[in-house]
Every structure is written in C-alpha cells, then in structure tokens.
Design goal:
431 residues, mainly alpha, three-stranded antiparallel sheet, binds carboxymethyl coenzyme *A
C-alpha cells in the first residue's frame, strides 16, 4: 500500500527526513513514522490517538464525515436489515459472506458450545450478591483461561479457532448467568434448539417454575442489537484487546481486558448512563436545563449518547436503532413511552442548538439502545453486558488479525516526560 509517488518531508533543526506514505483502500493517507526516532531522534505526541493509526486492518471501515460503517465492505444498515448476527460474525471473522452450508456448519458449532464448564457455577457463587454484571463478566471471562486451558496457545491456529468459537458461543450464557446471579434466580442452561438471540433471552428471562416462550419480535430486535454492536474498528476496548494481546497474553485474558475497558461511561457504559440521564430529565420541560448543563464548561455533565470520536455526522447505528425503538415499542404495545418522548425531544433540541451542530455532536449508538432494552425487560445494569457480548466477535476478529500479522510488535507507546530531572536521594532526617 506504500505509494512511492507520495512522500512527506519533515524538517526540524538541521534535519530533513523523508517519510513514506501509505494509501489505504478507503480513508485518508497515512504517514509512516516508524523510523522517526531511529533516524531523527524525536517522538510524536498524540494523546488519545486522535491522528495515529495504531495498526493496519481489513475488517471494519468508518467514514466519520459521511456517517458510514462498513464491515468487510458491507454497510451496516444492509447487514442490520438483511443479515443476522451469526452471519455477521462469520463475515467479520473470515472476511466473506458464507455459503448456506458454511453458515449452517458455523451456527451448529456455536450452538453446540454454549454450555459453561459446570465448575464455573462455583466461581459465580464467589461474587457478592449485589455485584454489577459487568464486574462478574470481567472476572468470569478472565477465568476461562483456567477452565479452558487447552485453547490458550496463541501460536496454534487450531487452539485460536477453538478459543474463538468458545468465546462467541459462551458469552450469552456468561452474560445471562451474571444477570441471574445478580437477581438471585437459578441459572437457566442453554438450549440447542433455539437460535443465538432466543437462547440468550430465554437464559435471562426463563425460570424453572414455568414454561417460557420466546417472543419472535423480541428475538429479532435482540439479534439486531447484537449485529449493530458487532465491531467498530480501533475503538478503546478493541485497542485494549490488541495491546493486551501484543504481549502474547492468552485470548481469554485479552477479551476480559476489553470488557473492563468497555465498561467506562465514555464507551460502552454510555448506554446505561444514557437511559439513567433520560429518566433523570423525566419530562420534556426539563430538557433546556440539561442542554444548558451540557454546554457549561464548568459542569462535567455531558449529554450521554451524544458525540463520537470518529463520527462527525449521524452514527448509522443510531439511525437503525431509532427505527428499531419505534418498531419494538409499537409491536410490544407500549404506547406513549415517556422516556422515548424525552429522547426524541432531546435529540431535536440538541440538533437545533449551534453548540452541538458546530461541534458536530450527533446521537450515537447508545442513545436509543437503552430504550429498546428496557422495553424488552432488561434492567440498566445489563445494557453494557449486552454490548460486551455483541462486541466479542469484533474483539476476536481484530485479535486474530493481529496475531497472524507478521509485522506485529509489542505495543509500547513512548511519552513526553514532564517530571523531575536526575537528583540525589535525600535522607529522611534531612527532609
Ligand atoms: N455533550 C456535551 N459536549 C460534548 C459531548 C457531549 N456528549 N461530547 C463532546 N462534547 C464537546 C466537548 O466538551 C468538547 O468541547 P470543547 O472543544 O469546547 O472542549 C468537544 O465536544 C469535543 O469533545 P472531546 O471530548 O474532545 O471528543 P472526544 O472525541 O475525545 O470524545 C466521546 C468522544 C464519545 C467520549 C464524547 O463525545 C462523550 O463523552 N460523549 C458522551 C458519552 C457517550 O455517549 N459515549 C458513547 C460513544 S459511542 C459507543 C462506543 O463507545 O462505541
């Protein structure tokens, strides 16, 4: 991808360096600064990686200006409408849409690996009764390296494949059991006659005392939520997974690191924070007060579910999510939902306000997802675990891509040191 006709020239002091330029299949050109320190003795400074490509990848592409998200070239709105989660998993993992036979084989493989090692039940029981399901998930996924030690050799392609299937297959069971434990209900075991989303719903909402019928409307909505969250190129949690795995750590440890990072309210935790914010606003007449707070530099409050590092236009996932919210609430017979009304009025008020338009702040995926999840019966504490289970395939796809990249190096950023220079130790009696 290096374009020999293009070079960047960097001049500083008495030095002049010529730097190669990469031309990607989509997106802006990338200046290759890898030799900068060796040849020029300087570092670059980019906290938050706002201008730095940390890797090359063929999985997902985002055009933030256009509001476009492509998985292996296919736009997210087409995948959300025409495909389903496990097919998107296949696409992300292997790079192409499967044939009917390949998809059936993949779905069977996933379906037949949904049970957890029975001793993991005791591991769950070690958590506090009121633990947040994300805390439980971080611990349980990390612990998979103890329960499934035979798939931790990252240099063995077969072991990597086994770990991949295990993670995708078991994540719904792990998330559902984290929920069941947090509400004191017995664990519900997976069933192989159900599809991925229906199985998850049943493990969350069934109880042994009565029959549970999966509502196909909810199952389809659940599957769409999984699909919309499946991957998002080099976001904070994916970069965390890549950085953790660059040291050679095992896949379960790396995905646990990704889950921990996702939990933060600036990232996957925003869906819980957003619904809580909409409820706190309560009625449309309080919207101006919250808009004013979001604009106030001295107030740390931000409109949750608004803004994105990459999207400077509508997040295409939010567009699908908003349509889904309307459909699901209507199909469930939930009329005049006050939270949905506050969300719609808040969106309109923010979009009409120059503060948000000038800073290009639009609703993101988390703005409407909580409304659907709550209508489906999930408590807010389950919103981020559902994001984590959906994103697992993205994390694994990026992890696999990285492991097999011959140019892969341990991730080790440099720093702009701002501390004390060399000084002598002072004995305690002299301080
Ligand atoms: N409400 C009010 N002001 C905002 C918001 C917001 N939600 N987001 C950004 N701004 C302002 C910010 O104060 C800054 O203003 P100024 O230039 O005057 O200092 C400007 O917009 C740029 O913000 P930034 O923090 O430099 O941008 P960033 O790219 O570092 O942050 C973000 C991106 C998503 C963390 C941020 O927009 C935010 O905190 N949003 C709310 C949390 C949220 O919804 N997160 C979910 C992201 S999508 C799900 C996922 O993680 O994949």
């Amino acid at each position: 991808m290096t374009d020999d006709s293009k070079k960047a020239t960097l001049t500083f002091g008495d030095k002049e360096l010529e730097l190669p330029i990469f031309t990607p299949t989509e997106g802006p050109d990338v200046i290759d600064i890898r030799a900068l320190y060796a040849k020029g003795g300087v570092f670059t400074y980019d906290p938050g990686f706002t201008s730095t490509a940390s890797c090359d990848s063929s999985i997902t592409y985002i055009d933030g200006g256009k509001g476009e998200l492509l998985h292996r070239g296919y736009p997210i709105d087409q995948l959300a409408e025409k495909s389903h989660y496990l097919e998107v998993c296949y696409l992300l993992l292997y790079g192409y849409l499967p044939s009917a036979a390949q998809l059936e084989e993949f779905e069977n493989l996933v379906t037949n690996h949904t049970m957890l090692h029975e001793q993991m039940v005791y591991f769950y029981r070690g958590f506090r009764r009121d633990a947040h399901p994300m805390a439980i998930m971080t611990g349980v996924v990390g612990a998979m390296s103890a329960f499934y030690h035979d798939s931790t050799d990252i240099h063995d392609a077969h072991a990597r494949e086994v770990a991949t299937i295990r993670l995708i297959a078991k994540m719904p069971t792990i998330a559902a059991w984290a929920y069941k434990f947090s509400i004191g209900q017995p664990f519900v075991y997976p069933r192989n006659d159900l599809d991925y989303a229906s199985n998850f719903l049943r493990m969350c909402f069934a109880v042994p005392a009565e029959e549970y019928e999966v509502n196909p409307i909810l199952s389809r909505a659940m599957d769409r939520i999984f699909t919309l969250h499946a991957d998002h190129e080099q976001n904070a949690s994916t970069s965390t997974v890549r950085l953790a795995s660059s040291s050679g750590a095992n896949p379960f440890a790396c995905i646990a690191a990704g889950i921990a990072c996702l939990w933060g309210p600036a990232h996957g935790g925003a869906n819980q924070a957003c619904l809580e914010m909409l409820k706190e606003i309560g009625t449309p007449d309080r919207i101006p007060e919250f808009i004013a707070r979001a604009k106030d530099k001295n107030d740390p409050f931000r409109l949750m579910g608004f803004g994105h590092r990459v999207y400077k236009n509508f997040d295409p996932r939010a567009t699908v999510m908003k349509q889904s919210a309307d459909e699901v609430l209507e199909l469930l017979g939930v009329e005049n939902n006050p939270v949905l009304q506050v969300a719609k009025d808040l969106e309109a008020a923010a979009l009409a306000d120059p503060y948000f338009s000038e800073k290009k702040l639009f609703p993101n995926v988390d703005f409407y997802s909580g409304i659907i999840l709550e209508a489906m019966g999930f408590p807010t504490s389950m919103f981020t675990p559902i994001f984590a289970l959906s994103r697992t395939v993205g994390w694994i796809s990026q992890w696999k891509e990285m492991i097999t990249d011959p140019t892969m190096k341990i991730g080790r950023p440099r720093q702009l040191y701002a501390g004390e220079s060399l000084r002598d130790y002072v004995n305690i009696e002299d301080r």
